[in-house]
Amino acid sequence: MKLFDCHNHIQDERIFPQLEKVMERAHLAGVERMAVKGCCEADWPKVIEIMNRYPQTYMAFGLHPWFIGGRSSQCFQVLEELLTTYPQATIGEIGIDHALENRNDADQEAVFMIQLEMARKFDRPVTIHCRRAWARLIELLDQFGTLPRGMLIHCFGGSAEMAAALVERGAYISFSGSITRPSAQQAGAALGAVPSDRLLIETDAPDILPHNMIADPSGFVAGGRLLNEPANLRHVLTKAAELRGISENHLAEITFHNAERFFFFR
């Protein structure tokens, strides 16, 4: 069984110091490929380092809405230079987040739209983060128009209707360990609403630990905290297959090929 973790942050300072062991465990769990998403200027160089060390990784660079306040005046120039230097790189993680306190919606949206323009200019796929802003995301996507290489909506937590609306606009929909939570009441319907050729799975490591791992004494610990890692993609696969009503092997095959298509720009 081959697995593709289509969204993680193994460049995160909480996980990066133990990267070699993390990658070994991922390999043992069947995670043959993964996409590492940069979120701010400070971590873009680490994403490059990971790609150089591990050829099974795929790089992405973006400015996440959590970090837009700390961006430099050269941020977008640097991002364009990275996309020029690395033609295999995708754009992400970018997006809008209405769950943040003291947020600046206008700035979030301006930064988001600039990066969508880059996706169009450089003909790259884009990974999008959205929390409590689904209707506004649809409005912005409709305002922007077509993304030539499509988009990935990561860690999807919306309704089946929203999943279908995003697929209509060219999106792949990715599910994380959040679907394992008892409170994830929309997860089954949302998974069922996504066509087979648009379905993906992810860990979002080192966050969103699968619910069944929360009290696992054998889990990955760093800085005194139990964290998520790519090897835990098997738990996401198991729950997604259960909710989808198909075998784990079949879902692994579907999601692996979908991720290949998205990240190879096919």
Essential attributes:
two-stranded antiparallel ribbon; 10 strands; TIM Barrel; 39% helix; 266 residues; alpha/beta; 8-stranded parallel sheet
In short:
This protein has nine helices and ten strands. The protein is of the alpha/beta class and 266 residues long.
User: CATH first level: which class?
Assistant: Alpha Beta
CATH architecture: Alpha-Beta Barrel
Average of per-residue pLDDT values:
96
Instruction: Estimate nothing, just give the exact number of structural domains.
Output: 1
The biggest beta sheet reads: 8 strands, parallel
**Number of beta-strand segments:** 10
Describe the structure.
This protein has 266 residues and is α/β, with parallel strands linked by helices. It has one domain (3-263): Alpha-Beta Barrel (TIM Barrel). Helices cover 39% and strands 18% of the residues. The protein has helices spanning 19-28, 44-53, 75-85, 105-122, 134-144, 160-168, 187-193, 233-244, 248-263, and strands spanning 3-8, 31-37, 57-61, 90-97, 126-131, 151-153, 171-175, 199-201, 220-222, 225-227. It has an 8-stranded parallel β-sheet, with helices on both faces. Strand 5 (126-131), helix 5 (134-144) and strand 6 (151-153) form a beta-alpha-beta unit. Helix 3 (75-85) packs parallel to helix 4, helix 6 (160-168) packs parallel to helix 7 (187-193) and helix 8 (233-244) crosses helix 9. It is globular, with a radius of gyration of 17 Å.
